[in-house]
Amino acid sequence: MKCTILSIGDELLIGQTLNTNAHWMSQKMNEIGIDVIHHVSLSDEKSDIINCLNDALKTSQVVLITGGLGPTSDDITKDVLCEYFGGKLVFNEDAYRNIEKIFELRKRLINESTKRVAYLPDVCTVIPNTNGTAAGMIFSKEGKTIVSMPGVPYEMKGMVTEGVIPYLKEKYTLPYIFHCNILTAGVGETQLADRLIEFEKNKDPRIKLAYLPNIGKVRLRLTIKGDNKEELQSLVEAARKEVVSCIEEYIYGFDEDSLEENIGHLLRERNFSLGTAESCTGGYLAHLITSVAGSSDYFKGSIISYANEVKMDVLGVKLETLEKFGAVSGETVGEMIAGAFSQLKTDIIIAISGVAGPGGGTPEKPVGTVFIGIGTKDKTIIKKLAFTSHRDRNIQLSAVVALVMLRKFLLNQLND
Fold it and tell me: Which of 4, 7, 33, 101 is the most exposed place for a label (fewest CB within 10 A)?
């Protein structure tokens, strides 16, 4: 079964508002076995709404519409759909009582514009709005389902969860769908694909494997869809085990796991404490580490030595080191590690210095040149890396690669 999502609102088209609704609805439809084939953003114009709806109904059995149900003059979706499906607007007592309840809590009076929200097409099934004033509407046409909901995200989400999904499950016989996400880091998608050639050649044809690269990471998604729940679960689990056996050293987790959480587990296993000394990343690495609840168990802090004066005054980097080798060098990173040990008194230190860009590069050290070091009091590893010409990407890559290096370092320590 196929679905099209129509997102109405000029604010989406001019880039004023990010369309997170379509992203979320796609996930929810996928979870119940409905394939979303189109996302369409369109203006608050009658002709656009009608044309896009006609096109959607040519290819999809389910159409989800958000936006244009409020009390203002630019909210025309309800009127357009009422006319499109041959109905007329009638006063809905339940919808009005919901508005009264909300306005009473807010200690506000209901004006005529707001009262108009309670008028709904007589040809729709009403979806109650437990989080706002504008009710949702379900229309049917030639066995197809058209759902109109407010564009306010938390209102739409309540309707989808409480009303739309139960309705679709009751109306249609939907297949089962199972996903398994295998999370990798420190390896590119091409290398992974090379390692998985035999798996892809011999896997059950019903199983789809997708490579989803992100900054410094690749998510592998196994998907299977069908009618036999137990068989599907068994097949996807067997496929997961086979993929793991091929690329185990790169895997840090599954589904909703994070690299930061995985590293936290490893640090706890060894009872190691961690600190960072950051230059070009400006604290972004520390931010990732502390995004994990409970990270205070192992993370002591970070020294953001963005300026050379801080490198010297706080971390004890020597002036001659900076003059001879530069702030972006393995020698400076090594001294940053030593200084951070003295200040933070942790078991492990990560230090980063680089040229994030867009300026500051030289022929010897172009933008994207980064040195990352990991050290204990007995052992230090420093790597020179070449990233991109884009500042934000260099900052993110530096932090992720530092975490990947730390993970490998910890695994080697744990295996000693």
Answer: 101
Ordered by where they begin, the domains of the chain are 2-171 (3.40.980.10), 176-254 (3.30.70.2860), 259-415 (3.90.950.20)
**235, 189 Cβ separation under 8 angstroms:** no
Got the DSSP string for 344-356? H--SEEEEEEE--
Burial tier of 91 (Cβ tally within 10 Å: 0-12, 13-18, 19+): exposed
Neighbours of 352 (CB within 10 A): 26
Residue 102's pLDDT band (cuts 50, 70, 90): confident
Is the pLDDT at 408 greater than 60? The verdict is yes
| Tokens coding 288 | 């990732």
Q: Which two tokens stand for residue 380?
A: 């230090």
SS (H, E, C) 234-283: HHHHHHHHHHHHHHHHHEEEECCCCHHHHHHHHHHHHCCCEEEEECCCCC
Q: Which two tokens stand for residue 49?
A: 């709404």
Q: Which two tokens stand for residue 257?
A: 């796991």
Question: What's the rounded mean pLDDT across residues 210-219?
Answer: 95
Average pLDDT, rounded, for the chain: 95
Among residues 18, 28, 336, 14, the alpha carbon closest in space to that of 3 is found at 28
Tokens of 321: 């080191």
220 within 8 A of 375, measured Cβ to Cβ? no
- CA nearest neighbour of 144 among 17, 58, 232: 58
pLDDT, tens digit, for every residue of 169-191?
A: 999 999 999 999 999 999 999 99
pTM to 2 decimal places: 0.82
What confidence tier does 383 reach under pLDDT thresholds 50, 70, 90?
very high
Q: Give 160's DSSP letter.
A: I
| Diameter over CA atoms, the chain | 82
Helices 77-84 and 46-59, packing angle to 10 deg: 60
Instruction: Report the distance separating Cα 151 and Cα 249, nearest Å.
Output: 44
> At residue 345, does pLDDT exceed 90?
yes
